[in-house]
Amino acid sequence: MDSKIGTPPGGAAGVLVSGQTLDRAGMKAIAQAGRAVSFEDCDFTAADLSDLPMGGFTFTRCGFAGASFKGAALDRTQWTGCRVGKANFASADLTEATVHSGDFNNTAWRGATLASARFANAKLTGASFVECRTLGLSFTDCLLINAYLQGIS
User: From CA 17, how far away is CA 26, in angstroms rounded?
Assistant: First the structure.
């Protein structure tokens, strides 16, 4: 896999990270830089990303299987084609986040803020959305088999 850190296509402001395997220390350093960051084809498998400020980040085709986002700031994030199975988003803030065509099977969202979050063409089989704050939450063409949606109206 080709690995690089550079500027997003078109010279957009921010940083592009591609093909990297990142753990908590690496992600913490990137998050603390305070810049817009786009990740493509990166691996965060089983990473502890709890309580990190990642608002506005973009993730494309990244792997997060078993990762922990407990209490993380993920507002305005964009997720496209990511594999996030069995990840834990407990108490995370995903206000205005957008998820498109990803695998979020068996994810845990207890107490997460999902205000105005949008899920489209996502696999959410077995996902648990207990005690979430969901004003404006939308699901479009999502697979929600055995998803636990208690309290969502």
Answer: 11
Q: Please calculate the CA angle 48-56-28 and round it to the nearest 5 degrees.
A: 35
For residue 29, give the H/E element and its range: helix 24-32
Instruction: Write out pLDDT tens, residues 108-153.
Output: 999 999 999 999 999 999 999 999 999 999 999 999 999 999 877 6
8 Å CB contact between 55 and 35: no
Q: Which residues share a beta bridge with 119?
A: 99, 139
140, 118 contact by CB (below 8 A):
yes
The continuous run of DSSP H or E covering 31 comes out as helix 24-32
Q: Are 99 and 81 in contact (CB under 8 A)?
A: no
Both tokens of 104, joined, read 């979020």
Q: Where are the alpha helices (DSSP H) in 6-153?
A: 24-32
